Amino acid sequence: MTNRPQPPAATPDTAAPVDVPPPAERELQLMVLDVNGERHEVITEARRTLVDVLRHELRLTGTHVGCEHGICGACTVLLDDRPVRACLMFAAQAEGARIRTVESLSARPPDAAGSQLSDLQRAFRAHHALQCGFCTPGFLMLAEGFLAERPDADTEEIREVVAANLCRCTGYQPLVEAIEDCAAARRAERAAASAPRKEK
Amino acid sequence: MRRIEDGGREDGAYEDGGRLIGRSVPRREDPRLLTGRGRFVDDITLPGTLHAQFVRSTVAHGEVTAIDLDGVRAVPGVVAAYTADDLGLGDITAQLARPVEEFVPTAMPVLARDRVRYVGEPVAIVVARDAYAAEDGVEAARVGYAVHPPVTDEAAALADGAPLLHAEAARNTLVDVRLFATEGIDEVFAAADRVVRVEARTGRQNALPLETRGVLAHWDDREEQLVLHTCSQVPHQVRTVASRCLGLVERAVRVVVPDMGGGFGLKCVVGREELAAAAAALRLRRPVKWIEDRKDALSASFLAREQHYDVRAAFDAAGRILALDADVVCDMGAYSCYPFTAGIEPLMAAAEMPGVYKVPAYRVRGRAVATNKAPTAPYRGVSRPQYVMVVERLFERAARELDLDPVEIRRRNLITDFPYTGVNGITYDPGSYRESLDLCERTLRAEGWYERQRAARAAGRHLGIGYSCFSERTGYGSAAFAQRKMAVVPGFDLSEVRMDPSGAVTVTTGTMSHGQSHETTMAQIVAERLGLELDRVRLHQGDTDRVAYGWGTFASRSIAVGGSAVRLAAGRLGEKLRAIAAARWEVPVEETVLGRGEVVRRGAPGTALDYRELAEVAYLRVDLLPKDIEPGLTATAAFDVFNDGTFSNATHGVVVELHADTGRVEILRYVCVEDCGVAINPQVVEGQCRGGIAQGIAGALFEQVTYDAQGEPSATSFMDYRVPTAHEIPDVAIHHLQTPCAFTETGAKGAGEGGTIGAPAAVLNAVNDALRPTGVELDDIPITPETVHRALHRRHYQESAR
C-alpha cells in the first residue's frame, strides 16, 4: 500500500449516491431520425437539442458546439439540404427530415494522404482554410448546402455566406477562396460534361 | 536577408527541389478534421461519465455567508454537489521571485471559500447524469452573500480608501515595478525640441477559442492515475498544479490533450474548474466531464488586454527620439494566473516597449491592479499589441507636430545595425525592420493608394493610410524568463525521436499545437534532417505520459524552441544510424553520411544501408552490434535559448475608409510584410499572419468585454461581444522577408503572434490619418462607430449639445 498515492481526495466518497436510477420525472420520448441516410431510433428527453442528440446519442461528434445560441455556426448541419443551426432546434423537431452531417461528406474514412476527401474538403485543405479545425465542420456544411442551391455564386455572395459563421483562426480569406475554388471547379466540370462532344 | 518571391507552394520547390523545409506541404492534421473525425475533449466519453457544471457567484464582490446545496442534490439526475469545504483542495498560487513592494502573491482557490471576487467565480460544483440535469442542479443552489462595493476599474482600484480585493495587496496593486530610469532622462525631456504625449486605453478582450474550456477527468485504477483529458496549451503545467492541489505525486496525474479548438493564450494557464472536476472524479470514482458554456467562457473565463498608458516621448527637431517615459497600468481582474502571475502584462510592456526603435533613454513604471472582474491570462501578443500601438501613436504625433512624413520619421529611428543592445538591456538579433517598412510603403504606393486618398479627400470622403512597425521576441528561453523573475522558469523544450524496427519514426515535442500545424511542421523538420519521406514521421504531443516534459505552446515558442529540440534529437538519431552502419561496414563513422532514408558510405558509390536494415539490426539482430552501441534507436535532446532570444519583425500597412453616415470603419487594403526567419511551411506562416491580424482588427474595432457599475458582465453572448465575421475582416496581402535566426536549429523564428501585435496600431493610425481634416485624434481602442461618427460630425454634436 505504501506505493499507492493516498491523497484524502482520492478516497471514494461512499456517501455519494452514484447509482441513482433514472428519475421518474425525466420525460423520455422515442424519436426517429434520418441521419446521413441511416434511420436511428433514439429514446431521450424531449428537451434535448439536435446537436446534443447527434453528438452524444448517435456519437456523430463531427458536428461541434461553439455557442449554443445560434451565432457561431459550429453546429451547422443540413436539414433537407438546407444549412441549419443544430443548437437552435430540438432533436424532436428534426423528425421526418433528412439530416446530413459532416460525416456524410466523404464516402469513406480518409487515409493519411486525404485521398478520400470530397472536392469541397480538398479545397479547404489546399487553401489552408482550417487551423484548429473546430469550426470546420460547420463551414463545410454551410458551404455544401449553399453551393448546392447557388452553384453560380460569385465571390461577394460566398463572402456573405461565410459571414454567417465564426472562425477564430483563419481570418476567413482562405475559407472564401476555398469555397470559390470548389464552385469554379464544379462549374468547369459541369460545362465539360454538358459540352457537345467534338468529332475527332 | 532575402526575399521569397512566392509562398513556396506545394509543387513549387523552394530551395533545391527535394527539401521539405520551406515547402507548403499539405497539413497532416487536415484529413481527420475535415471529415468530422477529429477528437476534441467533448468528443470523448467514457462509460459512466457524469457531467459537471458550476454554481457561480452572482455578485462581483462579497463574503459568502451561506451555501445551501440540499435543493441541488434533490434535483432529478444530480449525483453530487460539493463546495470548497467538501473538497478541501489546495489553492493555485503563482509566484514571482520579487520583493513584496514589487509583487504581492495572492492565492486563487479552486472553489471560492469565504470570499467572491467576480461575477461568475465558481462557488460549488454540481455533478449529474447528463449536462442538462447538471444545469438544473445549478439553478437549485442557494448562496447567500454579504455584498461589498465592487472595484470595477483601474481608477477605482487605485483610489484612496478603495475596497481591497486581497487584504495583503494595498491599493489593490499586485505588481508595481519601476525599471531602467536612464540617468539624466528628466534633463533630456527638459531640453528636447519636442515632447509628445499619448494617453491610451485598450479594451478588455476575450481570446475566444471557439472550443470553450473543458475536461474529462477519471481515476484509472490499473495505472493508479488521475487522467485528465483537457484542452490546454501547457499539459505539464496542468499536471503540476493538479498534483499540488489534489495532493498527488506528479506520476499519479496524466494530462492528455486531444485535438484542441484554439487557445490563443487563454488555455496556457491552469483553470479552476478543471481541478474541481478532477476532485469530483476522485471522490466519486467515476469519469466527470465539464464543458464550459459560452456564457461562462465570455464572462467567467480568463480575459486580457485592459490597459492604460500614459507615455511621453522627447524628440529632436529632425524627429529622432531622445527619450521615452511610460506609466502602464494593467487591469488584471481578481487573481494572478498560474504560472505567469498578474505580472504577465505589465512586465512584458515594461521590458519590451522601446521595440524596434533606437531609444537612448527610457523609464517605465508598470503596475498590475486587481479588480472585481474575471482574471487575466496571456492573450496572443501579450501587451505588445498595446504598447506597439502607443509607441506608433507617439511617432505619428511627433511626425504631425514636426511636419514630417510618418514613414520617414520611423525610418530615422528604426534599428538598422544588428545585433543591437537597447536601453532596456535587450540584445536584438538581426531582422529586417527597415526593409519591411520600405517594402510595405512601396507596395501601397505602387497600388496607387496615396493618389486614391487625395482623390477621395477632394471628393469629401475619408480615406486614411496607417502603418505599424514592430518586432516580437519569440524564442523566449529560460534566460529571458528568469529575467522576469518568475518563480517557475519556462523556456527549454525536450524531444525524443524513436525509430521503430520498420524504419518509421515517432517524434515527441513538449510544445502543444492547437491549430498551429505542428504535426506537419515538426514532421517536416525531422523528415528533412533524416532524409525521410514525410509520411514516415509521426508527431506525439500533449500527453504527459508520452512526452517527458515540456512547456507547451505560447509566446510563439514552438518552432523556435520546440522545433530546435526536435531537429537536434533527429540529428542524434542520425548519428546512431551512422554508427550502426559504420560498424556493419567496419569503417570509421566519418566515412558515412545520411542519405535519403539510408546511410551512404562515402567514396563508395552504390554502397548504402537503408534505415529499415539498420533498424532491424538495432532491434532484431543486436548480435551484430558492437558492444559499444546500445540496442534500440532512440535519441533525445533538450533545447534552450541562453541569450535574449530571437525577434521576428513585420510592418503592417492599412488603408481604411470612414463612412460618414454610419461611422463604420471599412478596411480597404491590408498589407503585411513579415519576417520570421526561415519559414518551415510558408502556408502555415501565412495562416498565422492572417488569423492573427483578424484578432488584432477585432481588438481595434469590435470586441470589448464590458461591465456595469456593479461589476456585472454585460457582454455575455455573441450578440453583445462582437466577434468580427468575413464581412468585417479584409483579405490580407502577405509578403515574406527572411532573416534566418543564427541560434535556432532551423533558422526559424516564431510566427504565432505577430499578426495580432501589428494590427491595432496600423488600423488606429489609418483611422487617424482619415480623420486628419477633422483635427480629431483617437488613441483608445476599440474604435466604435459612435466615436468615428462623433469625430466626423463634431460640429453637429457640439451644436446639438448646446
UniProtKB/TrEMBL annotation, chain A:
CDD domains: fer2 (cd00207). Pfam families: Fer2, Fer2_2. Residues 1-21 are annotated as: Disordered. Keywords: 2Fe-2S, Iron, Iron-sulfur, Metal-binding, Oxidoreductase. Residues 29-105 form the 2Fe-2S ferredoxin-type domain. SUPFAM superfamilies: 2Fe-2S ferredoxin-like, CO dehydrogenase ISP C-domain like. Residues 1-10 have a biased composition (Pro residues). This is (2Fe-2S)-binding protein. It comes from Streptomyces lunalinharesii.
TrEMBL record, chain B:
Residues 1-18 have a biased composition (Basic and acidic residues). The keyword Cytoplasm does not apply. InterPro entries: Ald_Oxase/Xan_DH_a/b, Ald_Oxase/Xan_DH_a/b_sf, Ald_Oxase/xanthine_DH-like, AldOxase/xan_DH_MoCoBD1, AldOxase/xan_DH_MoCoBD2, AldOxase/xan_DH_Mopterin-bd_sf. Residues 1-22 are annotated as: Disordered. Keywords: Molybdenum, Oxidoreductase. SMART domains: Ald_Xan_dh_C. Pfam families: Ald_Xan_dh_C (PF01315), MoCoBD_1 (PF02738), MoCoBD_2 (PF20256). It comes from the Bacteria. Residues 35-149 form the Aldehyde oxidase/xanthine dehydrogenase a/b hammerhead domain. PANTHER family: ALDEHYDE OXIDASE 1-RELATED, XANTHINE DEHYDROGENASE. This is Xanthine dehydrogenase family protein molybdopterin-binding subunit. It comes from Streptomyces lunalinharesii.
